[in-house]
Amino acid sequence: MKGQLRSAYQIGDAQKTILVATKISKAINIPEELLRESTFMSGKAHYSQNEYDDALKDFRKISSEVTSAEGAESNYRVAEILNKKGQTAEAEKVINEFIDKNTPHQFWMARMFLLLADISIKKGDSLQAVATLRGLKDSYPVDSDGILDEVKAKLDSLNSGNQVSTDSLKIGTDTSVVGRK
């Protein structure tokens, strides 16, 4: 089943990914790592199908830990979906809890700070957004994954007095959801 799951996920077959992940979740004596992987892939497949409530359920199941890449990204996806559903306070809570857990996955920590800045902008607190973005700019060590480019674009927009677009975090705009970790 592990091979079927990974194959379906890698080719972007969301329905088959969900089907195989469901079979794995119902099987007995499945290693914890495989359960986490299948739940994560199911969440990403649901997300790619615009099934956000189902995606949220899957991501919540594995978001309690942040040491695995799946757990770290799942935390981000939970906060992202909550924010897009208008549950800003709950999204902020998820972000702050994630930050306190000190994940080793810097990319997902940075994505959380970008989301936190977007929430600040949405709430009309551009000073907090600027502070968050500058902190990220000063401390994020990787310059090749798009994080710093996004930080720069948001800061430039804020500094020019324009409202920063939070469209980059709208549900359904991430086309790389299925088939990538």
What does this protein look like?
This protein is mainly alpha-helical. It has two domains: about 1-50, no CATH class; about 65-175, Serine Threonine Protein Phosphatase 5, Tetratricopeptide repeat. The protein is built from nine helices and no strands. The radius of gyration is 17 Å and the shape is elongated. Mean pLDDT is about 90; it is low at about 165-180.
Mean pLDDT: 88
Residue runs with pLDDT of under 50 for 5 or more positions: 165-181
DSSP strand tally: 0
CATH class group of the largest domain = Mainly Alpha
Distance from N terminus to C terminus (CA atoms, Å) equals 19 Å
Approximately how much helix is present in the residues?
Answer: 55-70%
What structural class do helix, strand and pairing data support?
mainly alpha
The number of distinct helices, counting runs of at least 4 residues, comes to 9
| CATH architecture classification name of the largest domain | Alpha Horseshoe
> Which shape, going by the Cα principal axes?
elongated
Portion in beta strands: under 5%
What's the SSE pattern?
HHHHHHHHH
Compute the CA-based radius of gyration.
17 Å
